[in-house]
Specification:
The complex is a heterodimer of chains A (114) and B (114). Chain A has 114 residues and is mainly beta. Chain A has no helices and twelve strands. In chain A, the strands form three sheets. In chain A, strands 2, 5, 6, 10, 11 and 12 form a six-stranded mixed β-sheet that branches. Chain A has a four-stranded antiparallel β-sheet with strand order 3-9-8-7, with no helix packed on it. Chain A is globular and about 45 Å long. With 114 residues, chain B is mainly beta. Chain B contains no helices and eleven strands. In chain B, strand 9 and strand 10 form a beta hairpin. Chain B starts with a strand and ends with a strand. The relative contact order of chain B is 0.33. The chains are: A mainly beta (114), B mainly beta (114). The interface between A and B is medium-sized, with 26 and 29 residues.
Chain lengths: 114, 114
Amino acid sequence: GNSVTQMEGPVTLSEEAFLTINCTYTATGYPSLFWYVQYPGEGLQLLLKATKADDKGSNKGFEATYRKETTSFHLEKGSVQVSDSAVYFCALSDINGGYQKVTFGIGTKLQVIP
Amino acid sequence: EAGVTQFPSHSVIEKGQTVTLRCDPISGHDNLYWYRRVMGKEIKFLLHFVKESKQDESGMPNNRFLAERTGGTYSTLKVQPAELEDSGVYFCASSQGLMNSPLHFGNGTRLTVT
């Protein structure tokens, strides 16, 4: 079956530091890849996505590139802010029986300190 | 538009009791999903409704869990009787009928079984 592996946190960074959260996946088909973010006290929000190989998803300064050869979708941001403190989930979506099914990773908690 | 709404936000019950969680999806969304995140683990799929029909319930842990979506609008997830290992955050998500429509998540219900 499908699976998503992402680095376990927590990750603690100083403001303006560079962020990388690694994510690799295993899938039988050609999945779409996502990063979701959960801010404290809120639900999951879609941060960015990529639907095919070599696509780059980007939003709010975050980027991730769909690498089929390494089955990876690492999340990066050049300069983090305190407001980026949240839990980040890597996920893939595949079509199962005509409907999409989303598989999540374990989530990586990011804490950015001033 | 109103987002996905879940009720209650928190629930603390004793082992052996019954709890019912409710999810109101975004109006017009045919797809409704239930997920669960046990502390420190990945977000796991429980089941998927298309309108009022159960499309996929392969993630339901056991027969103590019962999900319904009468009339194809809101959904309930009942746990009866609750066990300690049922503790976690239960997320509901909805999406439109299109195959790769993004999932919109609620804030989740944090269930604690003591």
